[in-house]
Amino acid sequence: MTTMTISEATVEIARPAAIATRRLESIDLLRGLVMVIMALDHVRDYFHANAFVADPTDLSQTSTLLFLTRWITHLCAPTFVFLAGTALALSVERRVAKGVAAWSIDKDVLIRGGIIALMDPTIISLGSGRLTFQVLLAIGLAMMCMAPLRRLPTWALLSLGIGWFAFGEIVTLQHTRDSVFRRKPNQAD
Q1: 164 within some domain
Q2: What's the structural domain count of the chain?
Q3: Domain of 116?
Q4: pTM for this one?
Q5: Where does residue 21 rank: exposed (0-12), middle (13-18), buried (19+ CB within 10 A)?
Q6: In this predicted model, what pLDDT tens digit does every residue of 114-141 receive, in sequence order?
Q7: How far is it, in rounded angstroms, from Cα 104 to Cα 114?
Q8: DSSP label at 130?
Q9: Do residues 56 and 120 both lie within one domain?
Q10: Is residue 39 part of a domain?
Q11: How far is residue 158's CA from residue 93's CA, in Å, rounded to a whole number?
């Protein structure tokens, strides 16, 4: 007969609960790192003397360190969007494995995306004093797009993603080319 101490019984009882609610630490660590970088940018705004006058990405007006603190924060919004998509995909897969109905998953994704999307033009706008359409709106709308897109086959999603990326780059290059080669009226010949 095997005897079990109280500490062994506690471990055996606690183990299944820990497995059922296991989180991916890498996602949480990346999310935390991005929040620290974003906080660095917001702190820089309020503690740098020329923060509201000079552009920290204009190398003729800034130092290398100040430029790098502003430049690195350009990675925050895309990383948050990526992590939101990753967390959503993992959540949907977990719910599908549990046998949750597809319409229930879609309804929850649409509601969650709608709430997040509405935070920018409502709560964030009230706090900033101007109408805001930024990262939260993009994350919310992207989540809402996931409801129909999650039913597409992998090849269709890959094609759509590559096309979206390529079209975005074409638009960016066109805008950059026009702004770089456009002459300013006060420029000397």
Answers
A1: yes
A2: 2
A3: 101-173
A4: 0.66
A5: exposed
A6: 999 999 899 988 888 888 888 889 889 9
A7: 15
A8: S
A9: no
A10: yes
A11: 18
